[in-house]
Amino acid sequence: CGVIFSRTVQADVNPFNTSDSDEEAERRREPSPSAEPHGASLAPFSSQTDAEPRALSLPGTRASPGGDGVPTETRVSVDAVAAQLLRDQYILTALELHTELLEAGRELPRLRDYFSNPGNFERQSGTPPACKDPGAVALNRTGSISTLDSLDFTRYSDDGNRESDERVAVLEFELRKAKETIQALRTNLTQATECEIPSQERKNYKSSPEIQEPIRPLEKRALNFLVNEYLLKNEYKLSSITFSDENDDQDFELWDDVGLNTPKPPDLLQLYRNCGSSQLSPREMADVAVGMDTSDLTKDFITQEPVQRIETIQQEIIQELEYQISLLNSEKQSLAEQITQLQRKLSPAFHQALLSFCHTSADSRLGSEVSCIADSEESVMLMLGRCLPHIVPNVLLAKREELIPLILCTACLHPEPKERDQLLHILFNLIKRPDDDQRQMILTGCVAFARHVGPTRVEAELLPQCWEQINHKYPERRLLVAESCGALAPYLPKEIRSSLVLSMLQQMLAEDKVDLVREAVVRSLGIIMGYIDDPDKYSQGFELMLLSLSDLSERVVSATHQVFIPAFAAWTTELGNLQSHLIPSLLTRIERLLQGEHGLDEHKLHMFLSALQSLIPPLFAVVLQNAPFTGRARLANEVTPIEVTRFPRPASPLQDVSTLVGGREQLAALLHLYEHQLQHEGTAGWDRLLWVVNQLLPRLIEIVGGINVSSSTCVHEFSRFFWRLCRTFGKTFTNTKVKPQFQEILRLSEENVDATAGNGVLTKATVPIYATGVLTCYNQEEDRKLLIAFLEDVMTTLSLSHAPLDSLKASFVELGANPAYHELLLTVLWFGVVHTSALVRCTAARMFELLVKGVNETLVAQRVVPALITLSSDPEISVRISTIPAFGTIMETVTQRELLERVKMQLASFLEDPQYQDQHSLHMEIIKTFGRVGPNAEPRFRDEFVLPHLHKLAMVNNMQTVEQKRMDVASQLFEAYSALSCCFISEEVMLNHFLPGLRCLRSDMEHLSPEHEVILSSMVKECELKVESRAMGEPPGSMSIAASLVGEDAKTKFLSKMGQLTTSGAMLANVFQRKK
């Protein structure tokens, strides 16, 4: 309050005069008896300190004609009042007037233009109207030290060459400086109120010059600043350092730290030179705190100033300080909002789930120690006191993790870069081969270190340690490097994340031979993708995804689906490339695979299709977050909770749709509106969903149509993909968008039975994928009925069209793998059993063969065998023959004796009934079935039924007169005996059935196929030798032709001849299959 200003600076110009209307300006140019002197009208405060408030010189005020001097009030225009308020800087009053006029519907252009112009509030006085006392000089508000236009970026930035253009860092710095300024203002306010000298003491100092007035805090800080400035200018650097240390509560870098609104005086040298030559007379000076007009200032006026006036001035200063604090608080909030807007818009739940894959933990005692990184010498001592009791007795190789807190704290606070580098080198080489817990401890410490020291030091000090060990001979050390890159990603500069760190991880992924290291690399790459913001790195990320998916290790591929693909998809979504590039690129690669000339690479197909499957959750999240109802989701109050089975179980938290959209409550609200939109309002204007319906689904269905239906792997992969797609997008979407497109392609109807154009697609993989991938998504009664009807229609249509049954078989195989659909499939087959068409009944009989292996024996006894026995007595011989493979499969898989006897009797009726003696097709089917199930059937059934009947069939074939039929039966018998030769056969059966049957078959082959006859002769010879050796005293037992050939020259001959023959692969495989 004791700052003295010269009279020459008191004539300040009112900045609001420019906002007056033309009428006001004209009236001010006209002379008026009531007009004030020019200097008084321009000054912000009047010299009439104790007088009554002067009347406003408004256009509507005139003197009374009576001459008594009392003014009469006429109507004053609102615009004139507003102009006077702005001219005298009664801003708050003007704002209240503006608000009331707005509420009344009478907006004033002058006030609207003034308050809508932010320039009126940036560099002008912040003094509230309460401080406009006509005796105090205005306190000009200092410009904010934390606004962008006044900030020296290169001065405040940690790294001026690179980080000065980082807007986020700048805003964070501004926010921090604003907080510091608020604290300084509050400190000055306290000092101003506590250190004010009473007026009586002031009188004593004025009246007795020999009594020196005590130095005020503001004066002390100003003198300290000038002294330090003088020392620095004159090269007294050591003295300056010592002086700064003794005044550690003051920042000598900024004059603003001295005090609020305090102008900087000249330096000490200038003050010394001017102290004797420019003394101002008392009448040429004015005390700002007193605020008197210099024209009325007398030598004794200060001593006569009333105490009430001083208290008024103090209150005005306090109000000014509080007003500036409120402005800085508003500025701080604005900066915080700008920082929030500049950050990436991933949901906090997604970031939290992504960072959960970093192997860091603070649950243990050591974890809490490391997390509490020290920030002062005193806390270092405290940490040493806590850690040394653990360090001293345990400095062994297995206990060196106890040293980690001490090493990191020292490295964090040590002033020498060389020493810090040495300490961090010790940290990374502390343990020769760190295990999981030890690596977790080191990573937790590194993260705490990075959080404390900032991005610049992390780049300069921690990353070089990782780079040095990227090719270390121990995989545990390389594993530590890979995990460190991911854990440190949030604390690295963005340029380093997308260049050096990405290159390090890419090199390790391509070159490292250890699965665990590559797995950690993929997880860290996923975390990097969650923080990268360079669009040019998208193509590199896509190639890294394909490289990770093609890895031969299941661990690496699993990590790719759990971490990398969800993180990469989230970044791709922000770039707008999910639907425009990422998914179409994978579809293009699948199409090229299916069109390849060298056969289908099922491994690559699985790789691309699994990647597409992992992209379904982010695709659905994009659809929800860009829907017409997205803006209304926040307004929903009570929403039905999400069912547990609403979505397929995600492979990781990052594939959980609730994580992607920001939480289960938000997802529940979006789902409620999503279903309502689909059911009642349609998809008009919903571009993201229309892309799925009009582009993705048709392209997928076209791809499915090109798949070879015999490839069970491809059918299974696409079925699982469509199942997850339909389950994720919901039942309404499946019923209204997916099923109609498939039904349009399949076109099942009786009218198209004979039309070749309408049935081609029924033989493709479209049928099993639609049946198992779409129709099985939901398991309500109506859904099951729809699936049953579809399978019945397909079976009927294919049978009547004489089309291949591969698509129907693929459907039964895929559905039969799940026991929940066994009853449903048996229902479909019973429909075929009782169908009027023999073609459909034949198809049903053949389908039982596929179903028997997976169905439990109870269902086989209750549902399968009765149906087969019904078909075995069918009027059509073709239907009866079609049941033989299913009967054979039952003999191969069932263990119930009673059930086996029923099947045995039915097969015996086929073989022994005279009506079947000339049924060449039936004999062929029985021989083929015996060769297929004989090696794996129950031994008693094989010895007592299969081998005797094969002997009989071989004998009958010797008497066959039709050459072609004899050759067909002989070929089937050869394959059957080849398969049964691997079995251990008793000596009795060998003499009575197996050897005689071989001789009969050899007799046929002598005339029909000499190359087969050579092999059969070898087999007969070995059997005879074996029987003879047994008869000469060796213990009785069973024998195997294949076993007897071991070690013999005939083995080579036998196998070479077998390789030359065109027998089926299944039969040759069974030759060497051993019965257990």
Give the helices and strands, then pairings.
Elements: E1 4-6, H1 22-29, H2 38-42, E2 61-62, E3 72-73, H3 78-87, H4 91-103, H5 109-115, H6 153-156, H7 167-194, H8 199-207, H9 217-233, H10 237-246, H11 268-274, E4 285-287, H12 307-342, H13 348-355, H14 365-371, H15 377-391, H16 404-413, H17 417-428, H18 436-453, H19 455-468, H20 475-487, H21 494-511, H22 515-529, H23 538-549, H24 554-575, H25 578-594, H26 602-614, H27 616-625, H28 657-661, H29 664-681, H30 687-705, H31 712-729, H32 731-746, H33 756-759, H34 766-774, H35 781-800, H36 806-816, H37 822-833, H38 838-852, H39 857-872, H40 877-882, H41 884-893, H42 897-912, H43 920-933, H44 939-958, H45 963-980, E5 985-986, H46 987-1008, H47 1010-1031, E6 1038-1039, H48 1041-1044, H49 1049-1060, H50 1065-1071
Helix pairs in contact: 7-12, 9-10, 14-18, 15-16, 16-17, 16-18, 17-19, 18-19, 18-20, 20-22, 21-22, 22-24, 23-24, 25-26, 25-30, 26-31, 30-32, 31-34, 32-34, 34-36, 35-37, 35-38, 37-38, 37-39, 38-39, 38-41, 39-41, 41-42, 41-43, 43-45, 44-45, 44-46, 45-46, 45-50, 46-47, 47-49
